[in-house]
Design a protein that fits this description.
The complex is a heterodimer of chains A (about 150) and B (about 500). With about 150 residues, chain A is mainly alpha-helical. Chain A is built from 5 helices and no strands. The chains are: A mainly alpha (about 150), B mainly alpha (about 500).
Chain lengths: ~150, ~500
């Protein structure tokens, strides 16, 4: 039997995986008793619930029906997330301006119709504006630029 | 007249220069972001959260409330002018509002929305001022078992009223609750699910999750869906309604106000439910129901009043019981907690100036909306033509800096990008992220109250049935579950939300 990848199936699988992971990883925490609950009691309850819900979704999806998962737009997904990741990794090392410019460049590259001049202008303009608002306006202790 | 005295205290706080300024800023920024197509109140509040971090708790909350009203009104503007409702509560406004705009009555539609919202806002503020003290009085009687049952009731109600699949919504609540357990367990001091990362000991900040899912994740989803309809914005003129038009909107606005204020108080209720119900009600009482969908003024006045009344009234369970009834209120509770405040009956007793200041600024916020929106509407219409390619990099940058600024932690930014991916995934899997946020906020409270209740009863679970308040709430929950299971109601509910196209 060929299994159709539907949104329900994938949701169910993810719920099962997360529930199972939390049960296994959470097994290191003491359960305690109902009157003196340990750290693991409540997470176990939730994880089991999640596992059951996930199993229900998987079973229902295997019985047929449901909407197929469409194509994934890898370009925006990867580039936007990469931009935010880069921002997080670089802000302490390079400061707001450099990290901001990189984020905007990556974000614009995620879209089709990428104009070099406009993008460069946008990246610098937005970073300067953000610095003005957050560092000077709101007085947040963020480094402006460090090279 | 205790209410008047309280409101007096509130206005003295709200009219303080800084608070007034931030209330105005909140309304302005909220409208600016809320007008942009595709950004509803939850996304708007998430994006603008960082602007409130540095403020006094009181001022921050006042500004957030301002942002909320602004975002909601901005959404209506977009719905009317370009038929792109930014959030589900203005979906119904788009039906007749946009038809009015196409017939050259854009100005009248916008004025109707603003004035009906103002009427509802004023009324609901009075309801809040009158009802809150006695409700808080009741809430002070609540023991841990009662709180536990109240929160379970709130979550079940939220599930029933969520869009899309109920099973998915339950799953999302559980995922949110599981995320809520991350960090050091307060009772046993055991770090849970921290994976050896010390910064996770305090748990994940809810703002990181909100900005990741609603700011970053939605941007990815929007980009993927590129080729979004470029729409033509109508010229706005003839803003002020004629006397007979004012008369035509008055009765529906009142009906919407009453309906919205009542529905907003219910856990799980809120603007969406209120605006849908108000539209249905107007259609039912209309002499010529066939005019609906063709630009009927009642179809704008009723739902707009209802969604604003409900938006306001949903602060009642939040501030008196500590129960967020929808995702926006979950954001509010999260923002309060970041300032070290725990909403609930004690808040009103211990910090009356905060509570009443907020109530007064709600009304001021509504007034500002009218003052701001009627003259500035041409500017909002311009903003609507701003291309998305210039906009989303700014949103991403604000989110990234905002997340970083919470704790000056680069790790938070990395966690937010993970939630950006999660947000995108949820969008593709048709899972509403709102229940996740509710679960995340309510999970730790549920655990805490469950533990306390069982410690007091020496592990005997019958405590939840023996206490009258708890028992009533659990019976109500059971009734809701039966409704949920009843297929007739379920198909009716799906039909309502399918009409909304969300």
């Amino acid at each position: 039997m060929k299994v159709r990848i539907t949104t329900d199936l994938l949701t169910g699988v993810l719920f099962v995986a997360l529930g199972a992971f939390a049960i296994i990883y959470g097994s290191r925490y003491a359960l305690g008793t109902a009157s003196r609950m340990g750290a693991g009691y409540f997470p176990l309850l939730i994880s089991c619930g999640l596992l059951l819900i996930g199993a229900f979704l998987v079973a229902r999806a295997l019985l047929g029906g449901g909407e197929a998962l469409g194509a994934i737009g890898w370009r925006p997904l990867i580039l936007v997330l990469a931009g935010v990741l880069a921002f997080g990794l670089l802000i302490d090392r390079l400061g707001l301006l450099a990290a901001g410019v990189l984020l905007v460049l990556a974000a614009r590259a995620a879209d089709r119709g990428f104009g070099l001049f406009e993008t460069a202008l946008l990246a610098v303009g937005l970073s300067l504006a953000a610095a003005a608002i957050f560092i000077y306006g709101l007085g947040l202790p963020i480094k402006l630029l460090r090279l | 007249m205790e209410v008047l005295g309280n409101l007096g205290l509130g206005f003295s706080v709200a009219l303080a220069q800084a608070n007034l300024l931030y209330c105005f800023l909140g309304v302005l920024l909220g409208t600016i972001i809320g007008v942009l197509p595709g950004l509803g109140p939850v996304a708007t509040i998430s994006i603008l959260l960082p602007f409130t971090f540095g403020l006094q708790p009181q001022t921050a909350l006042i500004m957030l409330a301002g942002i909320y009203y602004g975002a909601q009104y901005g959404g209506s503007t977009t719905a009317i002018l370009v038929n792109l409702p930014g959030e589900s509560s203005s979906v119904v406004t788009a039906i007749d509002g946009h038809q009015m705009a196409r017939r050259g009555k854009a100005g009248l539609a916008l004025a109707t929305a603003a004035l009906s919202s103002f009427l509802a806002g004023t009324f609901a503020t009075l309801v809040l001022a009158a009802a809150a003290p006695s409700l808080a009085e009741v809430a002070l009687q609540f023991g841990p078992a009662d709180y536990f049952s109240l929160m379970v009731f709130g979550l079940v109600a939220a599930v029933i009223l969520a869009h899309g699949s109920v099973v998915n919504a339950i799953g999302m609540i559980l995922v949110g609750m599981l995320l809520g357990t991350i960090g050091i367990d307060v009772n046993t001091s055991v770090p849970r699910f921290t994976f050896g990362i010390p910064q996770l000991g305090d748990g994940i900040d809810f703002a990181v999750i909100a900005m990741g899912i609603f700011g970053i994740g939605e941007t990815v989803a929007n980009l993927e869906r590129s080729g979004a309809a470029r729409s033509y914005v109508q010229a706005v003129k003839n803003l002020w309604p004629a006397p007979q038009e004012l008369r035509a909107m008055l009765a529906p606005a009142w009906r919407g106000t009453l309906l919205g204020s009542a529905l907003g108080i219910l856990p799980g209720g809120g603007p969406v439910l209120a605006s849908f119900s108000a539209y249905a009600l107007e259609k039912k009482v209309a002499k010529k129901p066939e005019r609906f969908g063709q630009g009927a003024i009642e179809g704008v006045a009723g739902p707009e009043a209802a969604n604003n009344g409900a938006a306001q009234a949903s602060f009642i369970p939040l501030l008196t019981l500590g129960l967020p009834s929808n995702a926006v209120m979950a954001l509010m509770i999260g923002a309060l907690m970041m300032h070290g405040l725990h909403p609930g009956p004690q808040l009103m007793r211990d910090k009356p100036e905060l509570f009443w200041g907020l109530v007064a600024s709600m009304w001021l916020g509504n007034l500002m909306l009218v003052v701001l929106n009627l003259p500035l509407v041409g500017f909002w219409a311009k903003l609507l033509t701003m291309p998305y390619r210039l906009l989303y990099p700014a949103i991403l940058l604000i989110c990234a800096i905002g997340v970083y600024s919470i704790n000056n932690s680069a790790l938070d930014v990395l966690v937010a990008s993970i939630f950006g991916f999660v947000g995108y995934l949820l969008y593709r899997l048709h899972c509403e992220p709102a229940p996740l946020l509710l679960g995340f906020i309510l999970g730790p409270l549920i655990e805490e109250n469950l533990r306390r209740a069982l410690v007091i009863s020496h592990g005997n679970p019958s405590v939840f049935i023996e206490r009258p308040i708890s028992c009533t709430l659990l019976i109500l929950t059971a009734v809701l579950v039966v409704f949920l299971a009843a297929p007739m109601i379920r198909s009716g509910r799906e039909r309502v939300f399918r009409e909304s196209g969300t």
